[in-house]
Amino acid sequence: MLNEKARRDFEDNDFVRFLEREIDKFKVSKKRNDMLLGERYYNGEHDIKERKRTVIGQGGDLTQVDNLPNNIIVDNQYARMVDQKNNYLLSKEVTFSSENEDFLKCIKNIFGADFMRVLKGVGQDCFNCGVGYIYLYYDNFGKIGFKRFTPFEILPFWKNEEHTVLDFAVRIYEVEAYIHGEETFVEKAEVYLEEGIRRFFIDGSRLVPDGDGNIIPYINFEGNFFDFGKVPIVAFRQNDREAPLILRIKELQDALNIVQSDFMNNLQEDARNTILVLKNYDGTNLGEFRKNLAKFGVVKVKSVDGAEGGVSTLKVNIDSDNFKTVISLLKSAITENARGIDSKSEKMFGNLSRMNIQSIYSDIDLDANSMEMEFKASFEELFYFIRFYVKNSGIGDFDRSSVKVIFNKDILINETESIDNCIKSLNILSKDSVISQHPWVNDVLEEKIKLEKDERGVLNGERETFENGVV
What we know:
By secondary structure, the protein is an alpha+beta fold. The chain has helices at 4-11, 13-27, 30-42, 77-90, 101-110, 113-129, 246-268, 286-296, 320-337, 354-360, 362-392, 415-424, 431-437, 444-459; strands at residues 54-56, 62-64, 95-97, 131-138, 144-149, 154-158, 166-179, 182-192, 197-203, 206-209, 219-221, 224-226, 233-237, 275-279, 310-314, 404-406.
């Protein structure tokens, strides 16, 4: 049942004032700005889009000009790295194993395709923002559900420095509303306590209760209100520093955009945009001369007092090979600093051995192993809520049942070599271990059931050999 202490806390104005100050600090904090930066760059909104062409003007100061080419090219290698690293760890379904097969069936039913889609989105949040959040709730049919919270909307308050035990959290977000017939956005705040949710409107820097101000329970079962015993928000991290990936490679990504944009600018600065040298053209208005040249493409010249008139140009030859070299070096540096895979590397071609593959994937594995360890710890938190749900739904009590989480990385493999190693390991390792390592197996439990079914069919004479032409 709801704890009355929560109601008393919110009647204390000091606590509300504390929340107001913390929300104001969070909105302008470096941590939140880093999250917004990662999201912005992933969506292609890079700093180069604000770039203007400038020249050295009077007094040596830079002056903005509008009559020069100003190409803005975004070669979003950062987004490629985020997708590559996220898909490497989370593109394949997570596998669960447990000695308790009943609990394992419950887990597989709960963590279906919808959850895997949420988890992959949380993985993207981890790279863009350093952390992702899953909120657990009961839907209208009494089933447990999962919702992905936007990281830069969440202000967590932790009980410990390691950020493993959540005390409470505040969600800050905007919703569309109509006020006096005009469409506008209203800012709201939700405070997630152990006992339930308290909702507010944000009016400037003040929190104004939304509705009657009562705490909304997490679970409403036949008129009885319950809570989970914990705040039902689970944090997932890329690493223990909660640092977005963009902080590693922003300068390199910006440099790549600038080089490619400058290359296009140089290509477009043709004869009508280059420096013209006029001979015996004194007294001619240079602005009018440029306009006529651009309009007609012709210059009339004449000799004055025996001196021959004319027009010549000063050209700077563009060495495209230099640009190609710099672009290649920048892309390679982005991949290396982001700890990704260079899919165009010469190492990726040919018949690769296991050692070659491990060498190619060593950098991406470094980050993936760290993220995998963090995610496994977060899954332990998720299992607390799953055990709570199945126990209170009358499905079963699995408080003492352990679960192992296996991430099936999307790694390039030599299937022939892997299958050969599985066959050679049959007399050394257990059948379960060998099956789990076979490249064609996605679900160990399902594969074991198929094998047992096949063996029973052979023993009962229901299946004959291939030599007789019957499958």
